[in-house]
Amino acid sequence: MVVRKGEIVINYNEVVSIGDTYLLTVVSELFGLEGWVIRQIPPHEGGRNVVYTCEKEGANAKILRIAFLPDRSREDFLGEVEYIRYLFEHGGTVADVVSSKKGNLLEEITHNNRTFFVCLFEKAKGKMLVENHYRYRDGAPITEYYYNCGKVLGKLHQISKGYTPTHRRYSFFDKFNAEYIDKLIPDSLSLTKEKMVQILNTLKGLDMNQETFGMIHFDYNDGNYSIDFNTGQITVYDFDNSCFGWYMYDLASLWTHGVGWTQSEPDAGKRRKFMDDYFETVLAGYRFETKLEDSMLDRLPLFIQVCIMESIVDAFEVMQNTGKELECDEELSYLIKCLEDDIPYKGFFHDIYSCEEPFEYEERKI
């Protein structure tokens, strides 16, 4: 996952401009979207793609994605869309990929010596949790939502256990390795780098068999699925970061996103009790669909540290991709502190945590 040599990283606004003047016309022809209303979705911080909604009277809405960063290959994108189609065909509740008129799941467009990778997806039914103001469906307990989060993930992992790709996505260690970390993270954070390498060495000692290691979402959270608030059904999308990794990583990610439900509780004991109950419900849903060995579950604290490592790496990648000056804000400084001081569970039960300023620590100078 290295930027192709000699290629200047194009920025988001340039892609939007090229989209307006050229790409959307070509894409409309490729996917038969003439007469559809195509609107750009405002980007989120660190977004890798330019994304549009496509709507037409009497048809199911679609999501159009144009990828422009040069750090992924054609094989990576083919691996992603092939995996999504496999999940969909085997009963996973995911937003399916839509084939172009040529029958391709991925279209490649070259313009002014730049390559853009284009995919079209079905728009997931329902809304994101944030769009519903973090309220769950009327008349159903919030525990149903926690259970469903685990159940849907368990189903995806169960399907993955039988998946043999034609186009193989990269594996966890292809990206997370000592060489890449050393190049990406500034030298002033030498302890951070050291701790990351320790984590990687621990991971290398873990089982990588069919039951524990396979294709995972790698960004499973309420920003990447929609909920049908009539039925509670969750539909997952945004497999942009999917890779071969430990299934336990996705579960740890679900743990780290669960803290939002109780982050304003001042009592650490009550926060811990909530998280134990929350995660027990998630696991009940997960284990309804697939097996999880206790020996892997015991590794939850390790995989929460892996989630922290991924967040730190991602923050520096975003700075690199957007040409921003390197800096550690309060949130990044908090993650670095947890990693460097071996503070477990994202510091959520530790003195470092403040419910007035959740997951923030004094800014670190780089």
Key structural traits:
366 residues; alpha+beta; six-stranded antiparallel sheet; 42% helix; globular
Order of helices and strands: HEEEHEEEHHHHEEEEHHHHH
Largest sheet: 6 strands, antiparallel
Radius of gyration: 21 Å
Count of individual helical segments: 11
Query: How does the overall form come out from the CA principal axes?
Result: globular
Q: Kindly state the number of beta strands.
A: 10
Helical percentage:
40-55%
pLDDT average, as an integer?
95
Distance between the termini: 25 Å
Low-confidence stretches: 1-6
Instruction: Determine the structural class based on helices, strands and strand pairing.
Output: alpha+beta
- Which strand-content bin applies to the residues? 5-15%
Question: Care to describe what's here?
Answer:
- The protein has helices at 12-31, 74-89, 142-160, 172-175, 178-184, 190-204, 247-258, 268-289, 294-297, 300-322, 330-340, and strands spanning 37-40, 49-55, 62-67, 97-98, 107-111, 114-122, 213-216, 225-227, 234-236, 243-246.
- It has 366 residues and is α+β, with helices and mostly antiparallel strands.
- Residues 1-6 have low confidence and may be disordered.
